[in-house]
Amino acid sequence: MAEPLLVPAPKGLPESGARALIGRSLFDGTFPLPVAVLRDDALTANIATMARFTDDAGALLAPHAKTTMIPQIVARQLDAGAWGMTAATAWQAARVAEMGVDRIVLANEVTDPGSLRLLQDLLDARPDLTVWAYADSVDSLAALDSVAPQRPGSLRILIELGFPGGRTGVRSPAQARDLALLAARRRHPVAGVAAFEGTLTAEDLPATIARVDAFLGEVGSLAVSLATDGLLTTDEPFVTVGGSAYPDRAVAVLAEPLAAAGLRLVLRSGCYVTHDHGAYAATSPFGDDPRVGLRLRPAIEVWGAVLSRPEPELAIVGCGRRDLSFDAGLPVVIGRRSTTTHDGPAPVVTALNDQHAYLRGAPPDPLGPRDLVAFGISHPCTTFDKWHAMPVVDEDHAVVDVVTTVF
């Protein structure tokens, strides 16, 4: 195929380029909707909040880069004191390393030849880089044996403990201990234990937290026993847990026993940086019903234009599944720009198509074509991956920066 004659601007941005947008108002007619924006004040507050939380807890923070995959945000997290970053795949790890990160927790097993080769090339190219990778079987250990044979300290092993019905990870502490015994005799040093508690559920939040605490207790006991028996063979052993829903429980259950055994706690929360109006607003310890004395603020807004009011109780907005998360709940209306006022309840999103949102509300709502609607989302990760670029705006919705995603 011939080279395209025109390189299109990223979705939501005009053809003028990012630099020309600084200082422009989101509502001055420059931006072709829909457009996803980040609130600069909320980003700044959230990064500072998590830095304070981890500092107070004596924990280290390696935020999960998969949430945003935005170099500018990763830089802000590192500047605020993040110890390293987390990635989910070897490809993500390579992209994160390009952002200048020198400590990467690769929070997954790596077993396919292409990813192993990429990891090898990455470590060869970056002598200053250290990667910690998960293992939950003899096969995953053997796969990692092929990486960095001349620099074994550059790749370190974390034994992953899971739970029945969960994702990856050996299914019992006894199995994890057996695997650690094998790993301690292989090429790469064993650095600690890894786990993910975020998919544990029960009938309500208190019961879920009880399950989370019990599992985290197993993780801690395993790690302490491995350290006591000399099976952790690096000079900075640690346990890494803590998604965005239960980092407070990780600190409460693990901080003291790990410190007593000479182990650090590394939290991997990623979604904290933007928070949301849905899943994490409900479950995060910094959310609508906070379990700690700190709060996070939703930082993502997706703006769309009302296209049609085809029925008295129905408005159609030009913003859909290609633009908004929908895997963990439908978006919610959080604002509007209109020539008319309305004091009633906000309309409710009842369905999404690829490019359309269905809003239903009481007939007196004057919302109509050409009015603008702002949506808050649930689960930030699956909104970020729908956008190549996002304006960052101040409290008046003036553009202060334009960030780019790397997916």
Descriptive key words:
Lyase, Ornithine Decarboxylase, Chain A, domain 1; TIM Barrel; 2 domains; about 400 residues; alpha/beta; elongated; disordered N terminus; 10 helices; nine-stranded mixed beta sheet
How would you explain this protein's 3D organization?
Residues 1-6 have low confidence and may be disordered. The chain is 28% helix and 21% strand. With 407 residues, it is of the alpha/beta class. The protein has 2 domains: 19-39 and 296-404, Lyase, Ornithine Decarboxylase, Chain A, domain 1 (Beta Barrel), CATH 2.40.37; 40-274, TIM Barrel, CATH 3.20.20.10. It has helices at 40-57, 71-79, 90-98, 113-125, 138-145, 173-183, 205-228, 247-260, 279-283, 381-384; strands spanning 35-39, 60-61, 85-87, 103-106, 130-135, 155-160, 190-194, 238-241, 264-267, 300-311, 314-317, 332-337, 348-352, 357-360, 372-376, 389-393, 399-404. 45% of the residues are buried. The longest helix is centred in the middle third of the chain and has 24 residues, at 205-228.
